[in-house]
Amino acid sequence: MLGITIGTGEYYSRLAKLAARAVEEKTGIRTMVLGDEHFAASGLPAPHYLKLRLFDFTEDDFVMYFDADMVCLNSFNPKQFARKDAVVAVAESARFLHVRTAQDWGIPLNEYFNAGLLILHRQCHRDWLRETERFVETDTKFAEYDPYDQAALNITRHRLGLKLELLDRRYNWIGYGGSRLSHQVPVFLAHGLHPENKFANVDFFEGRYKPPFNWHIKIKEEAMDQLKGRTLQLKTQTKNAAMRVQLNRDGTIGPPHFPGFAQYWFVHDRHGVPALALCSEAQIVQEFKQAHTGRWQSVQRLESATA
Q1: pLDDT tens across 15-51, in order?
Q2: Domain segments of the chain: what residues?
Q3: Which residues are within 8 A (CB) of 268 and not within 5 positions of it... i.e. 6 or more apart?
Q4: What is the pTM of this model?
């Protein structure tokens, strides 16, 4: 397996090299940065379309593509997720633009993925990438719709009927650093460290910035496996109030989503007791512990952090 990212221009070239180094250190796989020379020789209209020619730059059967603005924070083995017959990615957030794109092109919302992390196989996916390139070049509707590759990849995958396997949010956490609340977020790959500072990733790599989060959280994987695919009844802090929440196998919630805009879930250790955390893109919204009755009861609603 080879890890590939794209970095053209002075800033993104520097960012991509730092991101690739972190991926090598945390995953043990080799990496490659597609830079200005690759883009100049490609004849493509924009650097991000180099993603559609990944297998032209390597003889490896498996490729893990990752965006240059991703930061690998914890060690993991991407080879364990590789599939010969499936596009491996993370579900996109349910923002208006993504919902509209899925609806306009007839894609089930729960199959719309973020293209910032992709694990692909040459035999199964090289032709798909090339078909996506042709689609971008020739489809007149798309030409007026979206200048980037993510929507196109989703459209063509759906049209071709390619299998999709979704990883949980920890492998492509979007919106990391977007909240001022006191919280903890367990992350393997963060898609950006600060929503208002594009230099935060470089500052982090070079020791000038540390996000106000504790990402070194021990996930209770066995407890998560027992809850995946289940619908739970959760008791909130409001007296006698309860709700039913669907815990999807890829770490997403619903539909419907939990009030407070929670979209993802995980189980971790909280003072020696398993805690079910429901979180938005940037923060834990609420946590629950399991009562003797089997019902999960709220134990914490996070407050604003104090200086």
Answers
A1: 999 999 999 999 999 999 999 999 999 999 899 999 9
A2: 2-171, 218-302
A3: 184, 186, 217, 218, 219, 220, 274, 275, 277
A4: 0.77
